[in-house]
Design a protein that fits this description.
By secondary structure, the protein is mainly beta. It is built from no helices and eleven strands. It is 0% helix and 50% strand.
């Protein structure tokens, strides 16, 4: 069982930056693939980025490549999402997820979810 708690969301102007954090409980954090998804009002939850157990492999959706960076600190049981050059279309609730399938971009590929943190980008 893994419990995930996101933090770091907020209101930022277009072009600004935010860093999201996701703290995980449990001693098995290192065995999980971690990911970030987001969901805008009226839209389905969509994949943003994922990172392998060691952090050696990362995958991003095309719309955030070059702007967002996913990383993890296994000693702190935490995964991060550094978001730069934010755009109004990045506005959404961002969710952290844990699973076992490396590189999965589907919500069904993850077993545990956080409660989400709101990111709002003003134009």
């Amino acid at each position: 069982q893994v419990q995930l708690v996101e933090s770091g969301g907020g209101l930022v102007q277009a072009g600004g930056s935010l860093r999201l954090s996701c703290a995980a409980s449990g001693r098995t954090f290192i065995t999980y693939v971690m990911a970030w998804f987001r969901q805008a009002p009226g839209k389905e939850r969509e994949f943003v980025a994922t990172i392998s157990w060691s952090g050696a492999s990362t995958y991003y959706t095309d719309s955030v490549k070059g702007r967002f960076t996913i990383s993890r600190d296994n000693a702190k049981n935490t995964v991060y999402l550094q978001m730069n050059s934010l755009k109004p279309e990045d506005t959404a609730v961002y969710y952290c997820a844990a699973g076992v399938r490396v590189g999965s971009s589907r919500t069904s590929g993850y077993d545990y979810w956080g409660q989400g943190t709101q990111v709002t980008v003003s134009s």
